[in-house]
Each structure stands twice: as C-alpha cells, then as structure tokens.
Specification:
Elements (H helix, E strand, L loop, with lengths): L1 H13 L20 E9 L5 E8 L5 E7 L5 E7 L5 E8 L6 E7 L2 E7 L5 E8 L2 E8 L5 E9 L2 E9 L5 E7 L5 E8 L5 E8 L5 E8 L5 E7 L20
Antiparallel strand pairs: 1-2, 2-3, 3-4, 5-6, 6-7, 7-8, 9-10, 10-11, 11-12, 13-14, 14-15, 15-16
C-alpha cells in the first residue's frame, strides 16, 4: 500500500518542477591545449556573445576572439598574433557600421584593434609601453573611451584615452597622487560628462575607492575617495535612477 502511494505521488511532484532563475542555460569550456583565458564579453542584440582574451604558450600568447551563439556554440574563432605576449582585456561592438573594437596589453605596449563582424583585422594601433588598458566604453558621439593606468615615476596614474570612430586619439588624460591610482570602469551621462571608478593608494599603502568626474573634453573636474583603514576599491559604476545618482 505504501509503495503504491509513492508511485502515485511521483507523477504529481513532477508537475511542480520548475527551472530556478539562478540555473545555467549552458556551460562551456574552451580549451586549445595552451594557456587560455577570457577577459571581455559583449552580449549582442541577437543574443550571440563575443569573447576576448588570450591563447597560446606562456609568454607567446595571442589575442583570442570567439563569437558564440545563444547556446554557447562557437560560430567563429580567431587568433591575432603580434609576435610576443598579447592579451585582449575588453571588446565592444561598433554601434554604426558593424565590427568590434578590442583593447589589449602586450610586452610591446597597450593598443586597440578593430575587427569586422567575421573577425577580419581592419585597424591596429599601439599606444606605448607605459599604459595598461582595462575597459573600453562606447560614447554617445560614436567614439570610445579606454580606461586603465599609466606608469609615471614608478607609480600608477589613473589613465583615460578617447578615440574617435576611426580609431584616432581625440584626447587622453592621467591623474593621481603619491601612490598608485587606477580606473577600472566608467559611465557617461546624458550631457556627455564621464564618471569613473577605481582606486587611489596613498604613500603609506592604504587604498581607497576612487570616484572621478570628467568633462566631455577629458578635463578632470573632481575626485572623491571612499574607504577605511582596510583595502577598498570600486570595480564598476552605473546610474542608480533617473536623477543620475550613482
């Protein structure tokens, strides 16, 4: 009798099963039998994904870009080898005209490349040996903002660089104190002002979260520090509500 009740109960319970919101739709591992890593991801309007990172033997890595469909199946995969150690750190879709901008760091310097929708290399520019690029952000005028840090007198200074749709530098700016400073992410408001988050470290090693505001032309308007006696750092920034609070 007990066994029959259990058998009757199982079909009833199966009607109550539902997918939990936190469950993965897919999980994929991409392995080329070398050192492989992904650092940047862009979700495309058709729900495809494009990934940017590196692949290759240690100290001989190449920029690695993959386009995946919504189920994680690889549509195309490309390596861009500059003859040394290269790592793409972020990627952004071009809003008008197609293609993607990719930023990278290498032993030869930091730079940016433009690729077509099918992965063909269209444009390449290297900046200098003294910068490390973290993120690239599309701007409302069609340009792009690159954030990170630059080395100045053995310290890291927060660094921002704007390029136009053709990849040419419009302006660049750096700022910081006696210790290390870095910009990890930025956001542009409706008037073109830029807000950046990261960290600022003073001469005794204490690190605080950094918030900075810049004009559309790249002039530093103000900075604010938030933190405690422990290590503090901001990794991202976004508008909180319609009044542009952050």
């Amino acid at each position: 009798m007990i066994q029959s009740k259990i058998l009757l109960l199982l079909p009833a319970l199966s009607l109550c099963v539902r997918v939990l919101p936190g469950q993965n739709y897919f999980q994929q591992t991409f392995n080329r039998d070398f050192r492989d890593a992904g650092y940047g991801l862009e979700l495309l309007p058709n729900n495809d994904f494009i990934l940017a990172g590196l692949s290759g033997p240690t100290q001989s890595e190449a920029i690695w870009i993959q386009l995946l469909d919504a189920q994680g199946t690889t549509l195309w995969s490309q390596l861009y080898d500059g003859g040394g150690s290269f790592a793409a750190t972020d990627i952004q879709r071009v809003q008008s005209g197609g293609g993607y901008w990719v930023i990278y760091n290498s032993g030869l310097g930091a730079g940016w490349v433009k690729i077509s929708d099918t992965g063909d290399l269209l444009y390449s520019q290297i900046n200098s040996l003294d910068c490390v690029f973290r993120r690239i952000l599309p701007l409302s005028d069609g340009g792009f903002l690159i954030s990170g840090y630059e080395w100045t007198n053995s310290n890291r200074n927060a660094f921002l660089l704007k390029i136009n749709p053709g990849g040419n530098v419009v302006w660049k700016t750096g700022f910081g104190g006696a210790g290390d400073d870095e910009i990890d992410n930025c956001w542009e408001d409706t008037e073109g002002f830029i807000y950046c988050s990261g960290y600022s470290e003073n001469f005794d090693g204490n690190r605080d979260g950094l918030l900075a505001r810049l004009s559309p032309a790249g002039a530093l308007l103000w900075t604010r520090l938030y933190g405690s006696s422990a290590t503090d750092q901001f990794a991202g920034i976004a508008p909180f509500s319609s009044d542009n609070s952050l």
